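Let's study a protein:

___
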Amino acid sequence: MMKMMKMMRSESTESHTTPNPNLKPKPDRRMTGSKLFTVLLMLVFRVGSAERVSGLSFVESPGNVTSSLGKAVEVQCVLRADGVDLDVVWLREGQPLHFAELNQMQVPEDENSWLVISKLKIEELTLSDMGSYQCAVYSGSEVTLSTEGHIQVEGLPHFSVEPHHLSVVANVGLSLHCEAHGPPEPVRVIWLQDGAPLNNLEDPISLSPSTLHLSDYPPAVARARSAFNEVKQLLKDRSDVRYGVIHPAKFRITYNGIRKDFLDPKQALLYVQSNIVDGERPSDD
């Protein structure tokens, strides 16, 4: 019994150490030093190539420009490139400008690098030109962007909401709305009735967006306002005269830089006839 156990152990040991001729050796998947060096060399080469392709840097980005409508505007960006021939794409609000007026030139900086100067020109500035501007260079899946610059339009606010014609029932109040936008901000508005101002710039109603609330005039005020109709008829074709009835029943005339206010329709009529209508008639001499 002891001999059999020894034999079994001996056979077991021999079967473990003796290679089986029917089994093929497994390939050695461990990376040798030469293979590892080759792979590392390939990685360094690829990374180095990517850096050379994208060896770009903006040395000047579009600046911030504020100008008036209709004026010419020009912005530029300057890019340093390491021996790469490329084109600069201009973006407005992140979208390419396909039909912009561009001027691009390349100037050698040294033996290995160039300065690419790209200029964007807007001949006549409009409200749609407002926004952020940016230069971009695409190389395969890579993109190099400049910082953003902004173009603003100054001095000419515009209306987005304006009063419109209304037909209302007598003795019923109504409200009129208007909204204006800059730049510059904030925007204040003056409401006019028949050319005469109903508020001033210090009134809260002047701040845009503005709502003017009108109520029906009492009969006495309505008669007082309509009493100036004859004067308005004399002035309706005069583009050089500003006039109108202001609240509640005052008639205002501005002519040759002189402003006159009248509560009496007869005095207003006499002033217009003497100083505006008859004053321009040629003398008999």
Remarks:
- Confidence is low (pLDDT under 50) at residues 1-21, 33-53.
- The CA atoms of residues 65 and 132 lie 10 Å apart.
